[in-house]
Amino acid sequence: MTTTSRTGPGTGPVPNPAISEAPATDSDAPGVRQAASSVTDSEAPTTDTRPRLLLGVLLAALFMAALDVFIVNVAAPTIGSELRASGADLQLVIAGYTITYSVLLVTGARLGDRLGHGRVHFAGLALFTAASLACGLARGSTGLIVFRLVQGAGSALMIPQVLSLIQRTFTGEARARALGAYSAVLAVGAAAGQVAGGLLVSADLFGMGWRPVFLVNVPVGALLLVLGRRVLPLGRVGGHERARALDLPGLVLLGAAVSLLTVPLVLGQEEDWPLWSWLSLATAAVLFTLFCGHESRLARRGGAPLLTPRVLRHPGIGLAVVRILAVMSVNAGFLFALTLHVQGGLGHSALRAGLGFAPTAAVFGAVSLTWRKWPAAWQRALVPAGFALTAVSVAAVGLAFRGGGDGGAVLYAGYVGTGAGLALAFSPTLTGALATVRPGDAADASGLLATVTQLGQLIGVAAFGTLFLNRLESFGALRPYPSAEAFSVCAWALAATAAAGAVSGLVLRRR
Predict the structure, then answer these.
(1) CA 30 to CA 244: how far, in whole Å?
(2) Domain for residue 13, yes or no?
(3) 210, 247, 400, 475: which has the fewest Cβ within 10 Å?
(4) How many angstroms separate the CA atoms of 443 and 235, rounded?
């Protein structure tokens, strides 16, 4: 890929830099060529460090939010014993953050569009930091659940603004680099959560047990708030954003639909999928249909829908939604099933299990940051090749664990291949989808793709976690190593999903 020294981050964190709106020419192309073409020859190199500091603040906040999705998992047994929490309480401690995070993501994006992305990000960061302190000081399970819900709300306010501010601050190759860093941080945060949780609980700092899992966010959040006051655009937004009314009926419909979808996905497995979970999922489908109809009618009347329908008509957005759902489902399902097998089946400690994810996370981050420098002739093939590599690598991990062993060299080759494949499937997809989105639609696109990313993780945990646990129960004493056999079955299902992602572009283009 050819770049020039003229491409750069612009002149500072201003809300509306010139951004190309030319349509992408191919939905499989990662979009870097289109993004780079938006930078004109008149742009001069800059030594302004504010955009880089802004990106650092945004990505650090993203890392905290991604980390918090997983860091509590390994602390759950300690929380349960110290707070005498029931099984249902522990489920809500873990899931409460995810539920409010998912439900309010699109709303957070719209509030950023209306009130200013910098201001809403700052408010969300402050709320997240305060809720983390409250979680770390909670005296009972009820208080901890409530504060976890508030934590998720803080994340939902600050995370959609990350993509929006990247879209509005950076241009050309600088934007592509920022989006690559976004992808890397998102994945590394997920894997690092398992490692950090194991380290903090094992260390038992100052005899505080599980509390540092939450309190670690407080000094980091405080530092980001201090830096954020310097670099975030905290002033009033322009007239375009301020004029858009908040679509309250759309907000209610979408919030109810996402709630009814996420709650059974999070709690259904533990409750053995009771009737209410299936009714909830069916009702969610009805409400999503009503939401889409409402948004279309509102847009035709010239109103301001919560999610502008034209965003879905942007080149590559529809395909990106399908692919991000697939890659996030595989990523979350793989991590979840692997954790269950390694800790439950092989008896490894939480720390050892978490450290096992390090190769996958490291390779994901490295590939996300470097794929744009690969030969231009490869670019169109990166996403399908990434899905194909993921399919082969996940299957290899499943085969390595068959027979109840520790996996050997094949296991680590599978970990590395999975990290590289997931990065190639996700990062170019995200970059290509956002390369041509207009500044006025940045909030809608950011909220949509952030919500899809989160829902993909929930679907992956629910679907593949259920498959693993069901196969584990059915094998029981029939197989000498039931956990290994169950993971092997799950690995083949994960590989099949990745293979479907590889051919999704061909199918959707024909339609």
Answers:
(1) 31
(2) no
(3) 475
(4) 17
Count of domains observed in the chain: 3
Domain residue limits at 508: 309-511
Please name the residue ranges forming H helices in 50-171.
Answer: 50-71, 76-83, 87-115, 117-137, 141-169
Q: What is the pLDDT of residues 427-461, one digit of tens each?
A: 888 888 877 677 667 667 777 887 788 788 878 87
In which residue are the tokens 């759950």 written?
76
- Tell the residue number behind the tokens 């600050």, with chain if given: 158
In sequence order, which residues have a C-beta less than 8 Å from that of residue 171 and are 6 or more positions away?
7, 8, 9, 10, 17, 18, 19, 35, 38, 39, 43
- Give yes or no for a contact between 172 and 38, defined as CB atoms under 8 angstroms apart: yes
- Alpha carbon distance 169, 426 (integer Å): 22
Comparing CA positions, the residue from 41, 39, 45 lying closest to residue 19 is 39
Match 């970990």 to its residue by tokens: 415
Count CB neighbours of 374 within 10 A.
13
Between CA 444 and CA 487 the distance in angstroms is 38
Q: What is the pTM of this model?
A: 0.73
Scanning 378-407, the segments in alpha helix (DSSP H) are: 382-401
pLDDT for the residue numbered 476:
66
Pair (363, 494) in one structural domain: yes
- Which residues, 6+ apart, have CB-to-CB distance to 294 below 8 Å? 249, 250, 253, 305
pLDDT above 60 for 424: yes
Please give the DSSP secondary-structure letter assigned to residue 340. Answer: I
